[in-house]
Design a protein that fits this description.
Length: 238
């Protein structure tokens, strides 16, 4: 008997540490400032397109953990997600990242566009604009934008609004000088500055606002198919 009690007592601190990712999604973190993730990211983890809440289901574990760390550190600014990330312990971040990574990945319908029209979102996505040093998005984000390894997140499965928000976050907005009729509008610095080697900042800042919209709509339009999941479309670097 005594042995059992001792055994339990030894286990208790471990139980307190072992955060449950599913629990955090459904009930929130131990700190009430971290509400259930599913209220915004959806019961199926697929996000809410109209509100710009991204899909988390099937995103790489290391990518999710990195984003939460970036929100905490202020390298990625967002008034909704920063306080939530700050309220999660490191153990909770690890657990919830693992749980979302374990949910189904986006299942795109691979319909190759043979010849994208120049100047369209598809052209940028598949060919880039090398004369402006903009590589094609699929070079890093994988064929059909399904993501590659743990560094390059999927774009397929995300909404146009969310993709556009992220590109604009890396862009910031330039100052508008005063005119006789209007006041000057100060520049807004980029709110997302967490990309390795400034890869995305360079790309986002090289695009025109119309291109941002077009490429966001292209990836959002890839959608998700009901057909059986084809694992071969997902590439792993490491
Ligand atoms: C009140 C709504 C809300 C709740 C609750 C919420 N999120 Fe978010 N989340 C957002 C929004 C909005 C964004 C996009 C922020 C931006 O545009 O940068 C986001 C973005 C993220 C991202 C970045 C995804 C990417 O593709 O880069 C991660 C990771 C994330 N949330 C994790 C969580 C976790 C884990 C929880 C639960 C503990 C949670 N969120 C709860 C609204 C929410
Ligand atoms: C040279 C490699 C590279 C190329 C080319 C590239 N990206 Fe990225 N992209 C990245 C990396 C790395 C990240 C993850 C940054 C981070 O850690 O937050 C990223 C993240 C993103 C995100 C944020 C996704 C999310 O879940 O929050 C969007 C949106 C995005 N890229 C759009 C594009 C578009 C559109 C293009 C083409 C015009 C493009 N990218 C081309 C490397 C690249």
């Amino acid at each position: 008997m005594k042995k059992h009690v001792l055994g339990l007592a030894a286990l208790l601190p471990l139980l307190a540490l072992a955060a449950d990712g599913m629990d955090i999604m459904q009930k929130g973190g131990a700190n009430p400032s971290a509400p259930p993730c599913m209220t915004c990211h959806g019961a199926d983890g697929k996000g809410m397109a109209a509100s710009g809440f991204p899909r988390l289901a099937g995103l790489p574990e290391a990518y999710i953990a990195k984003q939460l760390a970036d929100f905490k550190a202020g390298r990625r600014k967002n008034p909704v997600m920063q306080p939530i990330a700050e309220a999660l312990s490191d153990e909770e971040v690890a657990a919830v990242a693992r749980a979302y990574a374990g949910m189904p990945k986006v299942n795109v319908k691979a319909e190759p566009i043979e010849r994208p029209e120049p100047g369209t979102g598809a052209w940028l996505a598949l060919r880039g604009a090398w004369e402006r040093n903009i590589p094609e998005c699929v070079l890093c984000h994988g064929p059909n934008g399904v993501g590659v390894g743990s560094v390059f997140p999927p774009l397929a499965g995300q909404s146009a609004l969310y993709i556009e928000n992220q590109l604009n976050a890396w862009r910031g907005t330039p100052a508008i000088p005063a005119t006789r009729k209007t006041k000057a509008v100060p520049a807004v610095p980029p709110t997302r500055a967490n990309d390795p080697n400034g890869l995305m900042a360079h790309i986002a800042q090289s695009l025109t606002p119309a291109e941002v919209k077009a490429v966001a709509e292209y990836f959002a339009g890839l959608g998700e198919t009901e057909e059986p999941f084809d694992a071969s479309q997902h590439h792993r670097l490491r």
